[in-house]
Amino acid sequence: MPYLTPPTTLNARDLAAVQAQLAQARLPFEDLLPTSMPLFLGVRDSDSGLSRDVTQPGPLIAFAGLESHGVEGLLRSLWVRPDHRGRGLARTLLHAHESQARQLGLNRLVLLTESAADFFQALGYRETDRTALSAQLRASTQFQQLCPASAHCLSKTL
């Protein structure tokens, strides 16, 4: 049974797993470092369904990261293993990161996507002109190098 990990930084083992899954999904991963995503959330598979012991975790079956850029947050790399899709895991991770962003005092959560705009729009995210975002966020590697200008820029006020 899947369980949500507490917010943490990426450790070396998780980083390797995340990079491999993102590469396979053709999503950007080149700039991910243990320190680059201070709020990483994962969903792990647990054989017993009861374990929340993150020292003996099962494999990651879903994950997402959050970067802070001033008062704006950048949602990064929301991914769910294909055989676990359709179970609400992406929505769970998204809501958890929205809650974390509020606790950090962020006023808006932003993301770039080439393939999941409909999913995010159904959850309250709206197309956003990139020029309406802070210079700090627009200067991020995600905006400057990794995602094409054709990617949908979506945001949600928190």
From TrEMBL:
Keywords: Acyltransferase, Transferase. It comes from the Bacteria. InterPro entries: Acyl_CoA_acyltransferase, Bact_Acetyltransf, GNAT_dom. Transmembrane segments: none annotated. GO terms for molecular function: acyltransferase activity, transferring groups other than amino-acyl groups. Residues 10-140 form the N-acetyltransferase domain. This is GCN5-related N-acetyltransferase. It comes from Hylemonella gracilis ATCC 19624. The lineage of its organism: Bacteria, Pseudomonadati, Pseudomonadota, Betaproteobacteria, Burkholderiales.
